Amino acid sequence: MSLRKIFFAACLVLSVLCLAAGYGIAGQWIGVVMAIVIGLAWLFARKYSASGLPLICLLASVGMAVAGQLTGVSPLLMICGSGIALAVWDLLLLDVTLESNSSGEQTLQYENKHLQSLILALSSGLCAAFLGRLLTLQTPFILLVLFVILTVLSLDLVWGYIEKVVYR
User: Cα(160)–Cα(168) distance, rounded to whole angstroms?
Assistant: First the structure.
């Protein structure tokens, strides 16, 4: 089993668990069933990944998270569920991109680099969402813009360091 398939399975399970757990804790059992159905739809979308089904599954997962937010379900679980669903969607698109390529060294390097950037983006996005939920700061807009620029440049430097260490 390839690393891409392992990440797909792990992300799919985590996304469904976050959505189902959020709805289950709130006692909304229809939401739990819908989260499981969406998880099964993701498996069906993997088989037909060249169609528009992955986008529909992504919209359904994000829609479930938004509906959960509006009905009082745990916001952190809904953020995790929708964020990880975005990673599942990206992995399905990566499958479509790589299905016609041979499994050479260059394709393997591209896949590994894509998975590393996906993990970095997912982890930094979820950390930012968690910090945003926990911290309430009254900052001027210009300071917020400068902070975002600093964060983007820092992530670029971290990514450059990772490339230098890994692809030496």
Answer: 11
Query: What gap in Å lies between CA 57 and CA 41, rounded to an integer?
Result: 7
Q: What per-residue string of b and e applies to 119-140 under the rule 16 or more CB within 10 Å gives b?
A: eebbeeebeebeeeeeeeeeee
Q: What is the pLDDT of residues 10-53, one digit of tens each?
A: 999 999 999 999 999 999 999 999 999 999 999 999 888 778 89
Q: What are phi and psi of 110, to 5 degrees?
A: -60, -45
- Residue 100 DSSP label: T
- Give per-residue pLDDT as tens, 137-164: 787 889 889 988 998 888 888 888 877 7
DSSP letter at 52 equals S
- Give the other-Cβ count within 10 Å of 64's Cβ: 25
Question: What is the model's pTM?
Answer: 0.76
